[in-house]
Specification:
Elements lengths: L1 E5 H18 L2 E6 L2 E6 L2 H15 L1 H15 L6 H12 L1
Parallel strand pairs: 1-2
Antiparallel strand pairs: 2-3
């Protein structure tokens, strides 16, 4: 959940904000004089965002994602058992 907090409010509330960010993956927009100055997010959340950006910048990955979505919508899927057999053949 995104929350907004002023820099003045953040100072005494930092332990609670830290706990919310760490445990609940809350995101805090910190403002100063009504303007956003920083964002506090969980490191795992940050890494996930960076990974998503990298994937979206990779044209070949995007092409594969679009193709997979199109195939899934068309019902062109395989069963989990068939996938397992296929992976076993690759590893042998």
């Amino acid at each position: 959940m995104d929350r907004t907090v002023t820099l003045k409010e953040l100072r005494p509330g930092l332990p609670k904000v830290t706990a919310d960010v760490a445990k609940k993956f809350d995101r805090y927009i910190v403002t100063k004089r009504g303007r956003p100055v920083m964002m506090l997010i969980n490191p795992e959340d940050y890494e996930s965002l960076i990974e998503t950006i990298e994937i979206l910048q990779d044209r070949s990955a995007l092409k594969r994602i679009r193709k997979a979505r199109k195939e899934a919508r068309a019902g062109e899927t395989i069963s989990l058992e068939a996938l397992r057999k296929s992976l076993e053949n690759v590893s042998n």
